[in-house]
Structure formats: C-alpha cells, structure tokens
C-alpha cells in the first residue's frame, strides 16, 4: 500500500442513528474473545483471583428470566430474589484488568446478546441523550444484565440522571455490573462534595457490592517504555505507507472533535488501521481534554495504533488538570495512548 493517500479524521462527520447506539452496546472488539479463563491474575495480588471467582458465581446466578419482584395470579412461583445488592462494582487502579473481567462477565452470563448490554458510562449517558430517559428505561428494562465500564460521576447532572436510571432498571430486575477507580461510597469525593448530591451518590452505591481489585497497570508490567515521539516526516511517511491510516495535525483534530458529539467518536474511527498525528502539543483546556479522553477510549477499544510527532503523551495534560477532579480520566488516557503508541512502533521505517 506504499503511496496510499491517507484518510483524515478531520474530514469525517459521522451520523449515528439511535438504533446503532443500542446495537453496539456489546464489549468492544478488543474484548471480543476475553473470558474468565483468559484473565491472568497477578500471583502477588490474591484479590484478582477472588474477583474471578465472585464474578463467575455472579454470572451463573443470572440465568432465567429477570426477577422484577412482581407476580401475577397465573404465574408459577418465582424464585426468591437474591439477597443483597443487585450489582457488583469492580474497584481498582488503571490496567488491573477490570474491563477484561467486566467483558468476561458479559460473555459468561447465560442470556442472548440482545438481553445483555455493555457500554462505558459516557456511552450510557449518550444513549439517554439520543433516546430520552423513558425510552432508555423501556429499552434496557428487559435486559438480564447491564455492564457499565469506567463509571465516573464527573458532572452533577449525570449523577442524578444515572442514579435515577439505574434505580428504575434495578426495579425492573436488571442486574448491574460496573468498573471504576473509585469505591461507590466515595463517588464524587474530591470533585463535587455538595451536600445536595450526597444522597444521590449514597443511594447509587447501595445497588452495588464493592469488589476490590489490587495490582499494577498490566500495560506497563514488565514492558519497555513507550517509544518517544517521531518526526513529522516519519509520521507522514508511515501514514502514506499504511493502508487505512489517517493523518491529521493534532491541533486541527482537537478543533474538529469540538464539532462532533462524543457519542459519534466510535464511528469517527470506523475502518481505520492506524491514527497518525503530527505536532502533538499540550491540550489547551479541560473541555478539549475531556473530548480527547473519549477519543482515546474509542481508539483503545478498537486497538487502533497511534503514531505521533511532537510531545510525548505523558505531557498532554497540565499539572493542574492531573491534580484536578478529572485526573483519573486523564491518567487513563495517558495509559491507553501510551499502549497504542507502543503498538505503532512497527509502522515506522520497517
């Protein structure tokens, strides 16, 4: 494919119908084949082995029709509702395999794919935005399981929205599973400590059994450091030599992301084999940074390598950002972009 004309993310303006948002609520391609038996626990972290056991049992207990707690006079005696929370909450740092375990739970749950939903917290809020609250409740109420990856309450409005949604789904008998880097009872702490939202946060945490997963980031466990940025010429040459690659100036891409709703960032990357960026600079403001986080998540989910010139990815976000309320998102983005940069090494001057 030498000499191929590279694509451009900035030239794409995807339109995503609402039904695609629902149909795509499955584990991303990176996690298509993961299962509990492909998760490799760190022998120094017994909580990882325990998490596999607990989640395997949780999946096995989700067979049969959803238990709404309601009975009709002609219905057979329903099994007793399991005692305790109707959900499990995987708490741990970056790269300990939480998404691997969450996707394994989705795969292991004995139900048709159409009765299971898997999405990030952002994708869930985007679904509500596309369908409306009542239609989202109606769409998901018949599901056996809802898995929510990277659950974070970064916005007070989302706190109320998601708390209300999950409460309705629990009432309908939907089991819940979520990953995050913060325990349920600590959601919002250090971010939005306003008393008005504490009740919502505590009510939400009651739906989940916390399951702690300790360990170091496997993406950097025993692996070499990410390669340093390349030159503009190297990135441009690699983009032209790689079929299906995109080539964009980093500042222009940041501007373009502001014109595309984050719910469409997955579609923005459709068909790409690599993303090539020239002139990486620090992200100028928090709104731009949060949009870049979503793009990094979609690229990571789809295993799209990222080749870049300019500053290394660990210099994208200012100290103020890394010490602020969204710091966990930014560190996750750095971790994922670093992994994708490592994947891109083979694109340069083979």
- Structural class given helices, strands, pairing? alpha/beta
Question: What portion of residues is helical?
Answer: 25-40%
Mean pLDDT: 84
Write down how many β-strands occur, each being a DSSP E stretch of 2 or more residues.
8
Task: Give Rg in angstroms.
Answer: 21 Å
| Number of helical stretches of at least 4 residues | 13
Q: Which percent band covers the strand fraction?
A: 5-15%
Low-confidence stretches: 68-82, 190-194
Overall 3D shape: globular
Largest sheet: number of strands, sense, barrel closure: 5 strands, parallel
> Order of SSEs, N→C?
HHEHEHHEHEHEHEHHEHEHH
Strand order of the largest sheet: 2-3-4-1-5
Helix and strand topology:
Elements: H1 18-23, H2 46-60, E1 87-92, H3 98-108, E2 116-120, H4 121-131, H5 133-140, E3 145-149, H6 156-171, E4 175-180, H7 195-205, E5 209-213, H8 232-241, E6 245-249, H9 250-257, H10 265-268, E7 274-280, H11 286-301, E8 306-310, H12 319-322, H13 327-343
Parallel strand pairs: 1-4, 1-5, 2-3, 3-4, 6-7, 7-8
Helix pairs in contact: 2-3, 4-5, 5-6, 6-7, 11-13
